[in-house]
Amino acid sequence: EKAAKPEPAVVAKVEEAADVTLGHLKAIREGAFDAQAEAKALALLKKRKLVQQRKWVTYSAGKGAKFALEKKKEATDLTHKMLANDEYASLSFKKYNFNAFGSDTLGGHLHPLLKVRTQFRKIFVRMGFEEMPTNRFVESSFWNFDALFQPQQHPARDAHDTFFLTRPERTDSDRWVPQDYLERVREVHEVGGFGSIGYGYNWKLAEAEKNILRTHTTAVSSRMLYKLAKEYEQNGGGVFEPKRYFSIDRVFRNESVDKTHLAEFHQCEGLVAGRDLSLAHLLGTIHQFFRNIGMPDVKFKPAYNPYTEPSMEIFAYHPGLGKWVEIGNSGIFRPEMLRPMGLPEDVTVIAWGLSLERPTMILYGVDNIRDLFGHKVDLDMMKTNPICRIGLD
């Protein structure tokens, strides 16, 4: 008979066991744990989520060498006053930072009207014109209207079309126009002359002496033509030297403001004085001028002006508005205007005028004139508008 198999016995292998994990935790709590030496043990503890790593930042504050109860602003510049009263000795100066960037410089910017005006002036000069003086914003009604054979009852001379001055309201005619020329103008208005029957009314000197803001630069042209006639007379007549004049400056009209009209705007005017000039010369000169400013296609329409005959309105197409826009007026000055000045009978003066704003609107794609000139102008537009290419292509 077999003997019974003995049961295995469990005996202690070591006298006592050490809890390593517990020992690491106690060492961490007491701050005696060496994280660098026990890197593997630390990683195991983190893996078992028995420990977590935290970071403390501490600061130590104390009085420095420049401690003060009040904050003082450092001086940036040494001034004459500091040197005079020895104030600089008690001041603290800020160090210069030579690596810092300087502030951006803000340069001036040209308005589109100024750019177009500059190019217009260059084109006129290239065509052989000389500029007239336009420094009279305030003008007498005589040079603005009467010298141009415009009757004193004309609607354009009413207060709803013209700005009249109140101080001074009038100008003494003895100071600004020769009396013999004044009488010739009076006569041609009242009874006519030089092939005209005049207007048949009582011409009043008081009306001609009224001061106004000039309504057109033709007032400048009338003064220049009279000066030209006096020079011809002083030279004893004979050979008349042809002249080409132009002007670009501001004019004023008491008009309702809308997208195509302003009460204050700029007008360009050109005129040619010579012997036996005709309508063909006028058309050719206008076509040449408008080709030079980049508008080769223009249209003409018969019109009426008191001081030109024949007269024509000038139209150009505006892509932004989608229609033809009137940009100027033209014609041949009437004998009733030229002969009282003293110009020879065979001398003819052809002229045309246009606003500066209308061509600028077409060139820069502006469909509202108030966005170009006046208090509604966007200042950023003046900083970013392109160069004017008139006469450059």
Keywords:
two-stranded antiparallel ribbon, alpha+beta, 7-stranded mixed beta sheet, single chain, 29% helix
Structure report:
By secondary structure, the protein is α+β, with helices and mostly antiparallel strands. Helices cover 29% and strands 17% of the residues. The chain has a seven-stranded mixed sheet, sandwiched between helices. The longest helix has 17 residues, at 218-234. It is elongated and about 170 Å long. The termini are far apart.
Give the SSE layout.
Layout: H1 20-30, H2 39-47, H3 80-84, H4 112-126, E1 130-131, E2 138-140, H5 141-144, H6 173-176, H7 179-190, H8 205-208, E3 211-213, H9 218-234, E4 243-252, E5 264-275, H10 279-292, E6 299-305, E7 308-318, E8 323-333, H11 335-338, E9 347-355, H12 357-364, H13 379-384
Kindly name the structural category: alpha+beta
The main sheet comes to: 7 strands, mixed
Main sheet strand line-up: 1-4-5-9-8-7-6
Overall, the morphology is elongated
The mean pLDDT is: 87
Radius of gyration: 45 Å
Order of helices and strands: HHHHEEHHHHEHEEHEEEHEHH
Give the number of DSSP strands: 9
Return residue spans where pLDDT drops below 50 for at least 5 consecutive residues. Answer: none
> How would you describe the oligomerization state of the chains in this entry?
single chain
Strand content: 15-25%
* Helix run count: 13
Q: What is the helix content?
A: 25-40%
What is the CA-CA span between the terminal residues?
130 Å
